[in-house]
Amino acid sequence: MKKYILILFFLIFNSCVSVKKHNEQRASFITPEKLKEDVDFAYSKLKKMHPNLYWYISKESLDHKFDSVKQTINQPLTPLQFYFKLQPVITSIREGHLSLKIPRKKITKREFRNLKHKKPLFSRFDYYVGNDHLYIIENRDSIQNIKPGTEILSINNVPVSKYMKKYKSLINSDGFNDTFQPYFLKDVFFSFYISENGLTDKATIETLYNGEKKTYTLTREVKSKNELEKDKELKKRNQEKKINDFVAYNNSYNRNFKFLDKDSTIAFIKIKSFSREFSDKFYKEAFTKIKNAKSSYLIIDVRNNYGGSLDEINNLYSYLAPEPYVLIKPSQLTSKTTPLKTNYFRKSKPFEYAIKSIFYPSYFISQAFSTYKKDGKVYYKMKASKLTQPNKNAFKGKVFVLINGGSFSASSIITSKLKNDKRVTLVGEETGGANDGTVAGFYSYQKLPNSKIKLPIGLLLVQPNITFTNTKRGVIPDVTITEGIQDIIDKKDPQLDWVKNEIAKEKEKGNK
Asked: What integer best gives the mean pLDDT of the chain?
């Protein structure tokens, strides 16, 4: 028992030392020469590993940007200051998956436990970004009766416009569409803010609502005993929560199925994330119900879905395909050894590290034989690039798919394929992900040697099996309908309403 106590003490002590060391390094100043080495390191790794680096920017232009940022580094900087210099250059590559990890301050286990007993400061609101303004669109806890539609003008006397300008330069979509940024920015705004300003228990915001300015002080309130018990209950996973992929953090489901009418002629599936977990069972049950109900219409909602598993979208496509299909083209990478650069032991705890060590030889062999060469290029073997048969319960009726700027990555892959195959009617706005594919799949997690900033590099060129548009834009809807802030506040859905009205018209014609 004493040995176990000593080991536990050692692990806790080592963890505390690690956090302290990380935070000291984060606050330290690094010489210009060392930072320039990091710039060169980042670019050299990108050129070596990224399979389509100059898709949206010429080599000459990107060379110039990396050289230019080095010329601006003429004094020592902290890793965070350096991040704000280098990340806009990474953003200019216009690959939405490609981004430096912002160097955050780490917290100790004790600090983490204390935070678990307190309510969030900013994430108790839902936000909307429009024309570079930040609005509150939902106040879930009715904090100080702040109304939906309230604009946040400043935080602790710093104008939000200053943060907007700064943070916009840190994110981008795939290619040249301009729909993705507002959706993603509303979700990451306060993540950037906290990384820059630290975790606090209080913040003062200046707001504007109906022409009237007000100032509020937000506080990180302590959770009551009942609220802590509710948190525990939310984390318990029953069968329904598993199949619909319950998210305890915001008390919602990633997947949802229902019929929109009494006679079950209109089926509706909403997918917030292609998380893969229990998705096979979800689709099996949903499409069995649709088949049994003999539904004529299906609406699939992938708005605000940032993507996820290729296997899941391949499975979903099998329920929509009228004939055998290939979802994606063979996925290209830079070399046969690239799959071995994926940081197999990343984030492994001591016990996990030991288990992974046992299976590493099998992993090594499988990855070593996962590539093949054709016409001088190297490709990775993927299930989604092979011929797939339609599911026996494949839907044969009319399909509508709802998309918007928050539809990214795997969401764009499947909608691009569906549009190319003329299987659906797309309704909404241009997707945030590119029509002709993306670079993602799996990653090599590089660390810049001096600033210690992490740079995950996507290793696979993943493209839908379509005739490419070469527009360097997102998937364009067949019917463009936008959603405004007032629609959200009023809980109206003009995109879904358009589909319902269209179906009603078709039903009316059929009855004549």
From this structure: 92
